[in-house]
């Protein structure tokens, strides 16, 4: 073959372009990169909003404290806080609602329904996901007269009017502002017999932050209170399907008890990964606390639950 013919063949080969299969592979790779980028970008946005929210609340707290110390302010309540929020234009970028607890004399905190609450947006001051879920279950109990967890949960999952309050939630929203290193150390200390190390547990907690859940109710028959907690989509589907006793409560790592969030100290055998706990342990804690000899927080800790918010 002459040199001129070889050049013609090489030019023709270069002009063929990509095959359909090659184009499909490229498109698939681009789609994967876009999907990963969206997840990362969304996560960074949430972290940024949490930082802004915390900064706004710190600014509000300093402003209130300064006016109190100068004598311009002598009491703290929600109306006063709302006035300062308006003046300072300090709002949660995730539309959480700010509320105040405590007093000037004994110390006070400014909490956000989104970042300190259940991870739900305030939507201009509306109730949080947790508040709405509790209200819905209490309404169900009032209308039906049910008092056992099994029957309450069964009725909840069989009625779309109530089931709509089992919302999608993100663990990252709940754990924002929580010192994961300190939490990992507490979990390790409470599992000292298993070994383990703080760094491994912290990585496990960070993995939890990337997961999505459903928030569902558990009714403590001894504590006489509704307890929202997070379950996986798989467990949610099982509860919705019903049919056996295990569908009326599932294992979880977080639950909301009487105004506070608790995280389970349960781990795998060598204390290197977080494992969920069964909800009845919360009922046991509330039964003990009901006697008044120990606080709810102390009783929860005895059952392996750490207060995080």
From TrEMBL:
InterPro entries: N_methyl_site, Pilin-like. Keywords: Membrane, Transmembrane, Transmembrane helix. The chain crosses the membrane at residues 20-41. This is Type II secretion system protein. It comes from Emergencia timonensis. The lineage of its organism: Bacteria, Bacillati, Bacillota, Clostridia, Peptostreptococcales.
């Amino acid at each position: 073959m002459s040199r001129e013919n070889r050049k013609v063949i090489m030019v023709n080969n270069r002009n063929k372009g990509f095959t359909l299969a090659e184009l499909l592979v490229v498109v698939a790779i681009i789609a994967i990169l876009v999907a990963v980028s969206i997840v990362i970008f969304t996560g960074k946005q949430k972290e940024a909003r949490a930082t802004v929210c915390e900064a706004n609340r710190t600014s509000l707290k300093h402003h209130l404290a300064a006016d109190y110390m100068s004598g311009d302010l002598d009491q703290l309540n929600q109306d006063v806080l709302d006035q300062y929020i308006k003046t300072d234009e300090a709002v949660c970028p995730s539309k959480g609602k700010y509320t105040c607890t405590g007093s000037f004399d004994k110390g006070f905190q400014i909490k956000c329904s989104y970042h300190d609450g259940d991870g739900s947006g305030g939507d201009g001051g509306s109730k949080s996901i947790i508040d709405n879920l509790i209200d819905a279950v209490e309404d169900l109990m009032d209308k039906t007269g049910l008092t056992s967890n099994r029957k309450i949960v069964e009725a909840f999952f069989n009625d779309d009017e109530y089931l709509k309050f089992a919302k999608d939630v993100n663990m990252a929203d709940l754990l924002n502002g929580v010192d994961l290193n300190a939490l990992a150390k507490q979990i390790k200390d409470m599992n000292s017999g298993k070994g383990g190390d703080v760094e491994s547990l912290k990585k496990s907690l960070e993995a939890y932050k990337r997961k999505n859940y459903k928030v569902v109710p558990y009714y403590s028959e001894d504590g006489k209170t509704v307890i929202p907690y997070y379950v996986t989509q798989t467990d949610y589907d099982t509860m919705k399907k019903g049919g056996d006793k295990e569908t009326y409560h599932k294992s979880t790592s977080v639950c909301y008890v009487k105004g506070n969030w608790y995280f389970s100290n349960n781990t795998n055998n060598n204390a290197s990964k977080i494992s969920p706990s069964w909800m009845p342990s919360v009922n046991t804690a509330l039964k003990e606390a009901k006697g008044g000899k120990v606080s709810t927080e102390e009783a929860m800790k005895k059952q392996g639950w750490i207060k995080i918010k």
